[in-house]
Write a structure and sequence with these properties.
By secondary structure, the protein is α/β, with parallel strands linked by helices. The chain is built from three helices and nine strands; from the N terminus they run βαβαβββαββββ. It is 16% helix and 28% strand.
């Protein structure tokens, strides 16, 4: 089929097939790192360390040599086997906005079913979270939250998850998650 003839339609994989194959025609096998802009790199660094368990890996742009070279403040923080790169914007502008209603872009972290529950309970004590949600036609359960600046984040599991602990996103009386409900000012939350 040529590219011009291709049509898009729903595709569903059997339950449990998320990790069956990891091959790729071009040898791509996982996300190494992703980069996020930030206006306040100290706040992002603290948020990733304290709420996502991030560990410092590489920080640059903070000493005199880097300043003379014109390097922006940027950090790489390890979260699991992925590096989160955060770079302070030179002019203070970013595309990320707390009032952006779109689902993308967002970053999702994969966990076990037990860790999904544990992280949902832990994070819901300090910031707004939405979920856990099941998704129609796929065997993933996830919940959503934001950084203080509005970066959209998700934690998900592809393991079997108790039916009674997750609602179907989009179902009557559940609806679709709204990012505006997740805006916060961590760590300056009211007591």
């Amino acid at each position: 089929m040529s590219k011009q003839e291709a049509t898009l339609e729903n595709v569903y994989s059997p339950i449990g097939h998320r990790d069956v194959r990891k091959d790729n025609a071009f040898g791509l096998n996982r996300i190494d790192h992703f980069a996020l802009p930030t206006r306040n790199i100290a706040l992002m660094e603290r948020f990733i360390r304290e709420l996502l368990g991030g560990e410092p890996y590489y920080y640059a742009g903070f000493d005199e040599v880097d300043r003379k070279m014109g390097r922006s403040h940027h950090i790489f923080i390890r979260v699991g086997d992925v590096l989160m790169q955060c770079t302070e914007t030179d002019d203070g502008s970013m595309i990320i906005r707390k009032d952006d209603p779109n689902i993308a872009p967002h970053i999702a972290f994969k966990v076990s079913a037990d860790d999904l529950t544990r992280n949902f309970e832990r994070l819901s004590e300090v910031i707004p979270v939405a979920g856990p949600f099941r998704h129609r036609g796929v065997d993933v359960v996830s919940f959503y939250f934001m950084s203080p600046e509005g970066h959209k984040l998700e934690i998900c599991t592809w393991e079997p998850y108790p039916e009674e602990k997750a609602r179907m996103m989009g179902a009557p009386d559940v609806g679709i998650m709204k990012w505006a409900d997740l805006v916060h000012d961590w760590p300056n939350q009211p007591e």
